[in-house]
Amino acid sequence: MRSKLPDSKLSIFAVMSKLAAEYGALNLSQGFPDFDTDPALIQLVTEAMQAGHNQYAPLAGNLRLREKIAALVQELRGKYYDPESEITLTVGASEALYVAITAFVHRDDEVIVLKPAYDTYEPTILVQGGVPVPVQLEAPYTTINWDAVAAAITPKTRMLIINNPHNPSGMIFQKADLERLEALVRGTDILILSDEVYEHIVFDNQQHQSVVSVPGLAERSLITASFGKTFHTTGWKIGYCLAPKALMHEFRNVHQNTVFCVHHPTQVALATYLEESRHYLDLAAFYQRKRDVFIEAIADSRFQFTPSAGTYFQVLDYSAITEEPAPEFAERLTKENGLASIPVSVFNVDGKDDQLLRFCFAKEEKTLLKAAAILNSI
User: Fold this and answer.
1) Helix, strand, coil shares, percent, the chain, to 5
2) Whole-angstrom Cα distance, residue 60 to residue 240?
3) Whether residue 76 sits in one domain with residue 150
4) Which residue in 27, 98, 131, 154 has its CB near the most CB atoms, within 10 A?
5) Which residues contact 246 (CB under 8 A, 6 or more apart)?
6) Under 8 Å CB-to-CB from 244, ≥6 apart: which residues?
7) How far apart are CA 229 and CA 232, in angstroms?
8) Three-class SS state of 240
9) Over 90: is that where the pLDDT of 10 sits?
């Protein structure tokens, strides 16, 4: 049998979570909260089920929810997307990413990916016969070398994928980054796939800079978002995609032949939940408190760091402790010290190792303080 992904391995998230379970370690590896979802949202889903919203939703998603998303984006980003033709609900942002790549990337098309990168981008490109073109960022991944991005663009470049706020580094794009990106793709047919699942989790009074706010980018961009990340319900797998009408038409052609539609009662519940803006506007402060608890607790440790600017991840530099490769140190930290993390090198070109580990701080304070105690003991 000939595999389409012969080099595919078990996800590092699955590997580290399994290791954490085997050794009874605190799991700050995989990006999921250890605290409860808002009971009010769970109640809304229950009510939607009891009210009979248990059959197929429309292909594009519940219209009332699409209207709420349109209002949210216009309020926060200053751009209107037509709920009828420019917004589609998806099975998490993962399906949105898969569908966007599948709809537009043809055999031998090149897709630029900024590394370190979320590990589903490149396999999806390969499945479509495309060619991933990685551009390696330099540690600690707080800036983008746009000259290197420009050098990677060729006549075969079909798409450029960005992730903002950036996982795993916690970097956020500045307005100047988007302006430079707009200049690079001006006059080309290059599409932008903008993974913005952590859009509401930006710290230190900074603002999320979305491609929707730059007209020259918005007209060629597909933007993915995640209610799972926003409302601490990663297991619900519900997200959405924004795109201009012509791009969304092609997106929906693939979406309808992939899953057709998304869990209906959850959509009905979210439409009501979004009526209260504090549910998303308060997220930045909520997660910044967690970030601050974590980094203040490890301030005197031997780990070095730049505070995360967004997402719910913090990268720590362990170069003052050991010269071990990141995968080996992450494994030893789990087995011997009882704390699981993600080695950032697995997301880099050729496993480029900058001796960095990623920790998820979307946890209860007691969990973070336990993790900090372990780190301080090393």
Assistant:
1) 45, 15, 40
2) 9
3) yes
4) 98
5) none
6) 86, 218, 219, 220
7) 5
8) strand
9) no
pLDDT tens per residue, range 336-352: 999 999 999 999 999 99
The H or E element containing residue 68 is: helix 63-77
What is the strand order of the sheet 239-242 is part of?
Answer: 87-90, 239-242, 221-226, 191-195, 157-163, 110-115, 131-136
Q: Given 276, 297, 320, which residue is the final one in a domain?
A: 276
pLDDT over 70 percentage in the chain: 100
**pLDDT tens digit string along 113-124?**
999 999 999 999
**Would you say residue 35 lies in a domain?**
no
Residue 10 vs residues 15, 119, 144, 346: alpha-carbon distances, Å:
7, 11, 29, 12
**Rounded CA gap, 274 and 271, in Å?**
6
Task: Please give the Cα distance from 378 to 373 (Å, whole number).
Answer: 9
Asked if the model's pLDDT at residue 137 lies above 90, the reply is yes
pTM attached to this predicted model:
0.97
Q: Where are the beta strands (DSSP E) in the chain?
A: 26-27, 87-90, 110-115, 131-136, 157-163, 191-195, 221-226, 239-242, 313-317, 339-340, 342-343, 356-360
What integer best gives the mean pLDDT of the chain? 97
What is the three-class DSSP state of 203? Answer: coil
Burial profile 171-191: b = 16 or more Cβ within 10 angstroms, e = fewer: bbbbeebbebbbebbeeeebb
Q: What is the pLDDT of residue 1?
A: 86
Cβ 280 vs Cβ 202: under 8 Å: no
Residue 100, domain extent: 43-276
* Residue-level pLDDT at 59: 97
Please list, residue by residue across 309-336, b when 16 or more beta carbons sit within 10 angstroms of its beta carbon and e when fewer do.
Answer: bbbbbbbbbbeebeeeebbebbbebbee
Whether residue 116 is preceded by a cis peptide bond, meaning omega within 30 degrees of 0, is yes
The answer as to whether 292 is a domain residue is yes
Number of domains in the chain: 2
Give the residue from 160, 171, 173, 223 showing the smallest Cα distance to 197.
Answer: 223
pLDDT classification of 8: cutoffs 50, 70, 90 = confident
Beta bridge partners of residue 6, listed in sequence order: none
